Protein backbone atom coordinates (compact mmCIF):
# COMPACT_ATOMS: atom_id res chain seq x y z
CA UNK A 1 0.00 0.00 0.00
CA UNK A 2 1.32 3.44 -0.98
CA UNK A 3 0.47 6.83 0.45
CA UNK A 4 -0.54 8.15 -2.97
CA UNK A 5 -3.22 5.47 -3.22
CA UNK A 6 -4.87 6.96 -0.12
CA UNK A 7 -4.44 10.44 -1.58
CA UNK A 8 -6.22 9.31 -4.73
CA UNK A 9 -9.13 7.80 -2.80
CA UNK A 10 -9.47 11.02 -0.80
CA UNK A 11 -9.52 13.06 -4.01
CA UNK A 12 -12.17 10.87 -5.66
CA UNK A 13 -14.31 11.05 -2.52
CA UNK A 14 -13.96 14.82 -2.28
CA UNK A 15 -14.67 15.51 -5.94
CA UNK A 16 -17.26 12.77 -6.48
CA UNK A 17 -15.78 11.77 -9.83
CA UNK A 18 -12.85 9.75 -11.11
CA UNK A 19 -12.59 12.14 -14.06
CA UNK A 20 -12.39 15.28 -11.91
CA UNK A 21 -9.95 13.62 -9.52
CA UNK A 22 -7.75 12.57 -12.43
CA UNK A 23 -7.74 16.16 -13.74
CA UNK A 24 -6.79 17.57 -10.34
CA UNK A 25 -4.09 14.96 -9.79
CA UNK A 26 -2.86 15.30 -13.40
CA UNK A 27 -3.24 11.60 -14.08
CA UNK A 28 -5.03 9.75 -16.83
CA UNK A 29 -8.41 8.44 -15.72
CA UNK A 30 -7.52 4.80 -16.54
CA UNK A 31 -4.34 5.09 -14.43
CA UNK A 32 -6.26 6.54 -11.50
CA UNK A 33 -9.00 3.94 -11.80
CA UNK A 34 -6.47 1.10 -11.87
CA UNK A 35 -4.65 2.50 -8.81
CA UNK A 36 -7.90 2.64 -6.87
CA UNK A 37 -8.80 -0.89 -8.01
CA UNK A 38 -5.43 -2.17 -6.81
CA UNK A 39 -6.02 -0.65 -3.39
CA UNK A 40 -9.50 -2.18 -3.23
CA UNK A 41 -8.08 -5.60 -4.12
CA UNK A 42 -5.38 -5.24 -1.47
CA UNK A 43 -7.92 -4.26 1.22
CA UNK A 44 -10.50 -6.76 0.04
CA UNK A 45 -13.35 -4.21 -0.07
CA UNK A 46 -14.96 -1.92 -2.64
CA UNK A 47 -14.22 1.57 -1.42
CA UNK A 48 -16.23 3.33 -4.13
CA UNK A 49 -19.66 2.96 -5.64
CA UNK A 50 -19.30 3.79 -9.32
CA UNK A 51 -22.33 5.25 -11.09
CA UNK A 52 -22.90 7.16 -14.27
CA UNK A 53 -23.42 10.31 -12.20
CA UNK A 54 -20.05 9.89 -10.44
CA UNK A 55 -18.22 7.96 -7.75
CA UNK A 56 -19.12 8.04 -4.07
CA UNK A 57 -17.82 6.23 -1.02
CA UNK A 58 -19.37 2.83 -0.42
CA UNK A 59 -20.59 1.92 3.04
CA UNK A 60 -17.32 0.06 3.65
CA UNK A 61 -15.41 3.06 2.32
CA UNK A 62 -17.19 5.41 4.72
CA UNK A 63 -16.24 3.16 7.62
CA UNK A 64 -12.58 3.21 6.54
CA UNK A 65 -12.44 6.92 5.65
CA UNK A 66 -11.49 8.07 9.21
CA UNK A 67 -8.55 5.63 9.14
CA UNK A 68 -7.45 6.96 5.75
CA UNK A 69 -7.63 10.51 7.10
CA UNK A 70 -5.53 9.47 10.11
CA UNK A 71 -2.79 8.10 7.85
CA UNK A 72 -2.75 11.18 5.60
CA UNK A 73 -2.64 13.52 8.59
CA UNK A 74 0.27 11.55 10.03
CA UNK A 75 2.10 11.92 6.71
CA UNK A 76 1.37 15.66 6.76
CA UNK A 77 2.85 15.99 10.24
CA UNK A 78 5.94 14.03 9.21
CA UNK A 79 6.48 16.20 6.13
CA UNK A 80 5.93 19.37 8.14
CA UNK A 81 8.52 18.23 10.70
CA UNK A 82 10.97 17.52 7.87
CA UNK A 83 10.68 21.04 6.53
CA UNK A 84 8.09 23.55 5.32
CA UNK A 85 9.01 22.98 1.67
CA UNK A 86 7.92 19.34 1.91
CA UNK A 87 4.44 19.97 3.28
CA UNK A 88 1.68 18.36 1.29
CA UNK A 89 -0.78 20.68 -0.43
CA UNK A 90 -4.15 19.77 1.07
CA UNK A 91 -7.60 21.00 0.11
CA UNK A 92 -10.60 21.70 2.33
CA UNK A 93 -14.02 21.72 0.67
CA UNK A 94 -16.80 23.81 2.19
CA UNK A 95 -20.41 23.56 1.07
CA UNK A 96 -22.43 26.66 1.83
CA UNK A 97 -25.84 28.15 1.39
CA UNK A 98 -25.38 31.63 -0.04
CA UNK A 99 -26.80 33.31 3.06
CA UNK A 100 -23.52 32.57 4.83
CA UNK A 101 -21.31 34.69 2.60
CA UNK A 102 -21.82 37.90 4.60
CA UNK A 103 -20.36 38.61 7.07
CA UNK A 104 -18.78 35.26 7.93
CA UNK A 105 -17.46 33.19 5.05
CA UNK A 106 -15.19 35.60 3.18
CA UNK A 107 -13.30 36.91 6.27
CA UNK A 108 -12.77 33.36 7.54
CA UNK A 109 -11.37 32.11 4.24
CA UNK A 110 -9.07 35.14 4.04
CA UNK A 111 -7.77 34.49 7.58
CA UNK A 112 -7.30 30.77 6.92
CA UNK A 113 -5.40 31.33 3.68
CA UNK A 114 -3.02 33.71 5.46
CA UNK A 115 -2.29 31.08 8.13
CA UNK A 116 -2.19 28.06 5.78
CA UNK A 117 -0.96 29.29 2.38
CA UNK A 118 -0.32 25.78 1.05
CA UNK A 119 -3.85 24.56 1.75
CA UNK A 120 -6.48 25.19 -0.89
CA UNK A 121 -10.02 26.09 0.11
CA UNK A 122 -12.81 25.26 -2.28
CA UNK A 123 -16.17 26.91 -1.55
CA UNK A 124 -19.20 25.36 -3.26
CA UNK A 125 -22.66 26.92 -3.14
CA UNK A 126 -25.41 24.33 -2.85
CA UNK A 127 -28.79 23.60 -1.35
CA UNK A 128 -28.91 22.37 2.21
CA UNK A 129 -29.89 18.80 1.34
CA UNK A 130 -27.04 18.50 -1.16
CA UNK A 131 -24.55 19.88 1.37
CA UNK A 132 -25.57 17.38 4.05
CA UNK A 133 -25.52 14.49 1.58
CA UNK A 134 -21.99 15.44 0.46
CA UNK A 135 -20.85 15.72 4.09
CA UNK A 136 -21.99 12.15 4.76
CA UNK A 137 -20.31 10.86 1.59
CA UNK A 138 -17.03 12.68 2.22
CA UNK A 139 -17.41 15.17 -0.64
CA UNK A 140 -17.42 18.17 1.73
CA UNK A 141 -15.38 18.61 4.89
CA UNK A 142 -17.59 21.36 6.33
CA UNK A 143 -21.03 22.72 5.61
CA UNK A 144 -22.64 26.07 6.40
CA UNK A 145 -26.43 25.80 6.52
CA UNK A 146 -29.42 27.67 7.89
CA UNK A 147 -31.51 26.12 10.64
CA UNK A 148 -34.88 27.28 11.96
CA UNK A 149 -34.98 27.39 15.74
CA UNK A 150 -37.26 24.70 17.06
CA UNK A 151 -36.29 22.16 14.40
CA UNK A 152 -34.31 19.12 15.53
CA UNK A 153 -30.61 19.04 14.75
CA UNK A 154 -29.76 15.96 12.63
CA UNK A 155 -27.98 13.38 14.78
CA UNK A 156 -25.50 12.29 12.10
CA UNK A 157 -23.66 15.63 12.20
CA UNK A 158 -21.70 17.68 14.68
CA UNK A 159 -23.58 20.99 14.53
CA UNK A 160 -22.05 24.23 15.82
CA UNK A 161 -24.38 27.28 15.82
CA UNK A 162 -22.36 30.30 14.70
CA UNK A 163 -24.85 33.15 14.31
CA UNK A 164 -28.40 33.73 15.44
CA UNK A 165 -30.60 36.02 13.41
CA UNK A 166 -34.21 36.64 12.55
CA UNK A 167 -36.07 36.62 9.26
CA UNK A 168 -36.33 40.06 7.68
CA UNK A 169 -37.95 41.48 4.58
CA UNK A 170 -35.28 42.73 2.19
CA UNK A 171 -36.43 45.61 -0.03
CA UNK A 172 -35.33 48.75 -1.84
CA UNK A 173 -35.27 51.97 0.21
CA UNK A 174 -37.81 53.54 -2.19
CA UNK A 175 -40.32 50.76 -1.59
CA UNK A 176 -43.54 51.91 0.19
CA UNK A 177 -42.91 49.15 2.75
CA UNK A 178 -39.55 50.69 3.70
CA UNK A 179 -41.37 53.46 5.57
CA UNK A 180 -42.74 50.90 8.04
CA UNK A 181 -40.98 49.70 11.17
CA UNK A 182 -42.15 46.13 10.47
CA UNK A 183 -43.62 44.29 7.50
CA UNK A 184 -46.52 41.89 7.98
CA UNK A 185 -47.35 38.69 6.13
CA UNK A 186 -50.36 40.50 4.66
CA UNK A 187 -48.02 43.19 3.28
CA UNK A 188 -46.01 40.53 1.48
CA UNK A 189 -49.11 39.44 -0.40
CA UNK A 190 -49.32 42.86 -2.06
CA UNK A 191 -45.77 42.92 -3.45
CA UNK A 192 -43.93 40.82 -6.05
CA UNK A 193 -42.21 38.25 -3.85
CA UNK A 194 -38.84 36.67 -4.59
CA UNK A 195 -38.84 33.24 -2.94
CA UNK A 196 -35.98 30.79 -2.54
CA UNK A 197 -36.50 27.57 -4.44
CA UNK A 198 -37.71 24.42 -2.70
CA UNK A 199 -34.90 22.88 -0.68
CA UNK A 200 -33.88 26.10 1.09
CA UNK A 201 -34.85 26.75 4.71
CA UNK A 202 -36.19 30.20 3.82
CA UNK A 203 -38.50 28.67 1.22
CA UNK A 204 -40.09 26.60 3.97
CA UNK A 205 -40.22 29.60 6.30
CA UNK A 206 -42.04 31.84 3.77
CA UNK A 207 -44.62 29.18 2.99
CA UNK A 208 -45.26 28.72 6.69
CA UNK A 209 -45.49 32.50 7.18
CA UNK A 210 -48.02 32.92 4.37
CA UNK A 211 -50.02 29.90 5.56
CA UNK A 212 -50.82 28.70 2.06
CA UNK A 213 -51.77 32.13 0.67
CA UNK A 214 -50.24 33.25 -2.62
CA UNK A 215 -48.64 36.67 -3.23
CA UNK A 216 -49.66 38.95 -6.08
CA UNK A 217 -46.70 37.70 -8.11
CA UNK A 218 -43.78 35.47 -7.23
CA UNK A 219 -40.31 34.75 -8.56
CA UNK A 220 -38.31 31.67 -7.63
CA UNK A 221 -34.55 31.93 -7.33
CA UNK A 222 -31.53 29.94 -6.23
CA UNK A 223 -29.90 31.44 -3.16
CA UNK A 224 -29.72 34.67 -1.20
CA UNK A 225 -27.20 36.45 -3.42
CA UNK A 226 -29.40 36.29 -6.51
CA UNK A 227 -32.42 37.24 -4.40
CA UNK A 228 -30.67 40.40 -3.15
CA UNK A 229 -29.61 41.39 -6.66
CA UNK A 230 -33.19 41.00 -7.89
CA UNK A 231 -34.45 43.18 -5.05
CA UNK A 232 -31.83 45.84 -5.84
CA UNK A 233 -33.00 45.83 -9.46
CA UNK A 234 -36.56 46.55 -8.35
CA UNK A 235 -38.11 43.21 -9.18
CA UNK A 236 -39.69 42.69 -5.76
CA UNK A 237 -38.94 41.89 -2.13
CA UNK A 238 -37.53 38.79 -0.49
CA UNK A 239 -37.29 37.25 2.99
CA UNK A 240 -33.86 36.30 4.31
CA UNK A 241 -32.05 35.92 7.64
CA UNK A 242 -30.78 39.32 8.80
CA UNK A 243 -27.18 38.07 8.92
CA UNK A 244 -27.23 37.59 5.16
CA UNK A 245 -28.28 41.22 4.56
CA UNK A 246 -26.68 43.37 7.28
CA UNK A 247 -23.18 44.27 6.11
CA UNK A 248 -23.80 43.15 2.53
CA UNK A 249 -22.18 45.54 0.00
CA UNK A 250 -25.61 46.34 -1.47
CA UNK A 251 -26.89 47.22 2.01
CA UNK A 252 -23.82 49.34 2.79
CA UNK A 253 -24.30 51.23 -0.49
CA UNK A 254 -27.92 51.96 0.36
CA UNK A 255 -29.35 49.82 -2.45
CA UNK A 256 -31.12 47.57 0.08
CA UNK A 257 -32.76 47.89 3.48
CA UNK A 258 -34.43 45.29 5.64
CA UNK A 259 -37.36 45.29 8.04
CA UNK A 260 -38.41 42.70 10.65
CA UNK A 261 -41.36 40.44 10.01
CA UNK A 262 -44.21 41.72 12.19
CA UNK A 263 -45.45 39.45 14.95
CA UNK A 264 -43.12 36.58 14.15
CA UNK A 265 -40.50 35.68 16.79
CA UNK A 266 -38.87 32.96 14.68
CA UNK A 267 -35.11 32.70 14.92
CA UNK A 268 -32.70 31.49 12.23
CA UNK A 269 -29.34 29.95 13.05
CA UNK A 270 -26.32 29.78 10.79
CA UNK A 271 -24.87 26.38 11.65
CA UNK A 272 -21.49 24.84 10.82
CA UNK A 273 -21.77 21.10 10.26
CA UNK A 274 -19.38 18.24 9.78
CA UNK A 275 -19.86 14.50 9.71
CA UNK A 276 -19.54 12.81 13.10
CA UNK A 277 -16.17 11.12 13.16
CA UNK A 278 -13.42 10.30 15.61
CA UNK A 279 -10.94 11.61 13.06
CA UNK A 280 -11.15 15.05 11.39
CA UNK A 281 -8.48 16.22 8.90
CA UNK A 282 -6.13 18.79 10.41
CA UNK A 283 -6.93 21.43 7.80
CA UNK A 284 -10.68 20.96 8.23
CA UNK A 285 -10.27 21.22 12.00
CA UNK A 286 -8.30 24.46 11.64
CA UNK A 287 -10.91 25.98 9.31
CA UNK A 288 -13.69 24.91 11.69
CA UNK A 289 -11.92 26.74 14.53
CA UNK A 290 -11.52 29.83 12.34
CA UNK A 291 -15.28 29.93 11.74
CA UNK A 292 -15.96 29.67 15.46
CA UNK A 293 -13.47 32.47 16.26
CA UNK A 294 -14.98 34.76 13.64
CA UNK A 295 -18.50 34.12 14.94
CA UNK A 296 -17.39 35.02 18.47
CA UNK A 297 -15.83 38.25 17.20
CA UNK A 298 -19.05 39.19 15.46
CA UNK A 299 -20.96 38.69 18.71
CA UNK A 300 -24.18 40.69 18.39
CA UNK A 301 -23.06 42.61 15.32
CA UNK A 302 -25.57 40.96 13.03
CA UNK A 303 -28.44 41.47 15.45
CA UNK A 304 -28.52 45.27 15.21
CA UNK A 305 -31.96 46.53 14.31
CA UNK A 306 -32.51 45.99 10.56
CA UNK A 307 -32.61 49.28 8.68
CA UNK A 308 -30.60 51.22 11.27
Blueprint (SSEs and pairs):
Blueprint (H helix, E strand, L loop, with lengths): L2 H13 L2 H8 L3 H15 L4 E4 L2 E4 L1 H24 L8 E6 L4 H15 L4 E6 L2 H10 L4 E7 L8 E9 L1 E5 L13 H4 L3 E5 L4 H10 L6 E5 L2 H9 L4 E5 L7 H4 L4 E4 L7 E8 L6 H17 L10
Helix pairs in contact: 1-2, 1-3, 1-4, 2-3, 5-11
Question: Can you describe this structure?
Answer:
The chain is α/β, with parallel strands linked by helices and 308 residues long. Helices cover 42% and strands 22% of the residues. It is built from eleven helices and twelve strands. It has helices at residues 3-15, 18-25, 29-43, 59-82, 101-115, 128-137, 185-188, 201-210, 224-232, 249-252, 282-298; strands spanning 48-51, 54-57, 91-96, 120-125, 142-148, 157-165, 167-171, 192-196, 217-221, 237-241, 257-260, 268-275. The strands form three sheets. The chain has a five-stranded mixed beta sheet, sandwiched between helices. Strands 9-8-10-7-11 form a five-stranded mixed beta sheet, sandwiched between helices. A hairpin with a 2-residue loop joins β1 and β2. α1 (3-15) crosses α3 (29-43), α2 crosses α3 (29-43) and α5 packs across α11. The protein is elongated, with a radius of gyration of 22 Å. Residues 300-308 have low confidence and may be disordered.
